[in-house]
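Re: weekly structure request thread

Next one in the queue (142 aa):
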Amino acid sequence: MLGIAAGIATRKIKNHRLAPSVRATSRYDARTFETFADKHVLTDGKRAIEIYPIAGNGHNDAFAMVYLPAEKILMAVDAWAPPAANTPPPSPPSPFAVNLYENIQRLKLDVRQIAALHGPRVATLEELKTAVSPGAPKSTSN
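Done, posted below.
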């Protein structure tokens, strides 16, 4: 199970240094740690944040990506970083990038932009697709 936020299991973290900063009216308690195994949605009733495990990735068995469906923005750390502008993608492509693309396709996410968080810029899904080109080796599960 991944540990970001979900409704599968809840654990309290005692004596957490942020605990005093939580307002009594807050819906979320900073001391609550929730885990999930599949898609998890956080919402305030108006907007949604979708969190998905990145299946089959050798980087980390608790690897996750965050998707903002209204904006069509995907956020992922360590799965892929777009190269600097006007720089060709690495050859062969990173197996983590291939795996990220496979997960996006499997989940049928309508991604317009990818915020790689470690990369030099925001990229498009088309750039990721180009980086993992059809001739790219498939990723492997660990």
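The first strand starts at residue 9 and ends at 12. Residues 90 and 100 are 15 Å apart (CA to CA).
Next request, please.
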